[in-house]
Amino acid sequence: MAKDFFPLLRSWYEEAKRLPIWQKLRLIVVHSTEIYVPLQLNQSPFNVGLPIQLTSFSLEEIQQLAQCYGLNWKDGKEAQQLIELTGGHPALVQIAFYHLSRKELTFSELLKTAATSTGIYNPHLQRHWVILEKQPELESAVHKVMNTTEGIPLEPIIAHKLSSMGLISRVADQVLPSCELYRQYFKNQHQLTQQQKTIRRRGVVLTATGLKKLKTAIEEVKWQENAGKRYTLEKLSERTGLSIDTLMKVLAAETGVDKQTLKQCFDAFNLNLQSNDYDFAKFSENKPE
To answer: Which among 48, 204, 237, 285 has most CB atoms closer than 10 A?
Structure first.
């Protein structure tokens, strides 16, 4: 839709150059730059006309806005803390005032939970994170920026996209996090992602309870279907649909496999895999099947 609508706006602008009637039309386009929409230069309405960028609120402006919301922030302490948290970002400041004016939380609670999943900014932060996850080069760049206390250089296109999302501030050819809220949130998200990757790499193993349950089921089937004869790994492989190597890992309960593998093995013997039947494997360089 955007790729059709924006060129339409640009065409109206171009029509005004040759048709006097179109010169009577004045367009004010208010838009967010968080989502990058690639457009050809001669089709974009954003590289013509007079651009006016909404700047961050100053300390005095935040105090004035606080007064409008019925908050007594005359000493400037809370206003300064909000600037440090949000960088004076107008939308983030407004969100804070909205919730504070409704007395849904105290200012100290806001500061404490701001970068967490229970904080008032979570929907806003999650939208950014979803965008970054879809573009690994941006996520990687954000990780570098959020972990530096000094400015670092970025490729111009990457810097432009992150700046358009409002995540970074530019100082000459260096970039910094635009506010403490983003620094805290994206550092935490990166750590959480790395932990999840580590867990997936480690895999899971059967606990003593789970291993006993599986071996008991194998014994019962051995007598019921195999006349008490030993169930070979080949036979188990045929029954479970798992490779012999994977079955050896499952029964040894030392090297991690994925949870679905354990479930497939349990299902083959009409067992229900429960949370106390498995645990995370101790870390090793071995990757799960």
So the answer is: 204
